[in-house]
Design brief:
The chain has ten helices and eleven strands. It is of the alpha/beta class and 271 residues long. The chain has an eight-stranded parallel beta barrel with strand order 1-2-4-5-6-7-8-10. It has a two-stranded antiparallel sheet with strand order 9-11.
Length: 271
């Protein structure tokens, strides 16, 4: 199995982007997903100075990390947030990313507006010219009230563009949707174009997302399904620990290392 496998910088929530770059590279990964999530993890953000953005770019080059994706979550139900997301699209292009990720609602802020799937689809269609101009693919993440792959497939089908795919978060489907993961994957695997690989421990609604391989998600099953479907989408590892968060940077670095070693054991290549 040879595919892009990187680490979401959100795994280093609470620490500077430089910590994420160094930690991810030192473990052996070559790819990073940058996080630009308003009010949560603003490792990169459109309001940063040009000088600061270039210093981050230089740091990525120094550690030989390729930014292939960017989490730029905005509430796409809220017409007023569409302009913010367009800025995130431009920011992702600045860093040379191929993918930009967003949930339908806010990831960590309260939704100011809600809308039907049909209205959401129309909002997202407005973004397609920008995705084309900056050569990006938008991955819509299953999250919150839009927790399942089955629901996300409905929205992606309404949009009907090769520029818009599902970003399937393996733990969100359980945490927010309490689904049978195998059945939910089957319902949408043909529309999955990006994956947040996240493990789950504890009760389904408990904030507990350890290193890959330390929870109970059957990742072999997931990769077998992707292989059978000839789906070679990129993967971004995300570790969010418990509600208490990690004790220190060393705990994060170890979790990233544990995830790397576990995926090597599963036979993944390309990272």
């Amino acid at each position: 199995m040879n595919r892009i496998v990187g680490v979401n910088s959100n795994s280093f929530h609470g620490y500077e982007i430089e910590n994420a770059i160094k930690g991810i590279s030192n473990v052996g990964f070559r790819y990073i997903e940058l996080t630009a999530t308003k009010g949560w993890t603003e490792h990169v953000f459109p309001n940063m100075s040009f000088q600061r953005l270039h210093s981050i770019k230089d740091e990525l080059k120094r550690y030989n990390l390729i930014p292939f994706s960017m989490s730029g979550h905005c509430n796409l139900m809220d017409r007023e947030r569409i302009e913010d997301f367009i800025l995130n699209i431009k920011l992702a292009h600045f860093f040379g990313c191929k993918y930009i990720i967003s949930s339908i609602g806010e990831a960590h802020l309260e939704d100011r507006a809600e809308a039907s799937d049909e209205v959401v689809a129309e909002h997202i269609k407005e973004l397609i010219p920008y995705l084309e101009e900056y050569d990006l693919i938008l991955g819509l993440e299953n999250h919150g009230k839009h927790a399942t792959g089955r629901h996300m497939k409905k929205i992606v089908d309404l949009i009907d563009s090769e520029r818009v795919v599902i970003n399937y978060d393996t733990a969100n489907a359980i945490f927010y949707g309490n689904v049978n993961l195998e059945e939910d994957l089957d319902s949408c695997i043909d529309k999955i174009g990006h994956i947040h690989l996240k493990d789950k421990a504890g009760a389904y609604n408990e904030w507990n997302f350890p290193a890959i391989g330390k929870g109970y998600i059957d990742f072999k099953m997931i990769f077998d399904k992707l292989e059978k479907a000839k789906n070679n989408c990129p993967i971004s590892i995300e570790i969010e620990f418990t509600s208490k968060g990690p004790e220190n940077i060393e705990e994060i670095n170890q979790a990233v290392r544990d995830s790397y070693e576990y995926l090597i054991e599963l036979g993944l290549e390309g990272f």
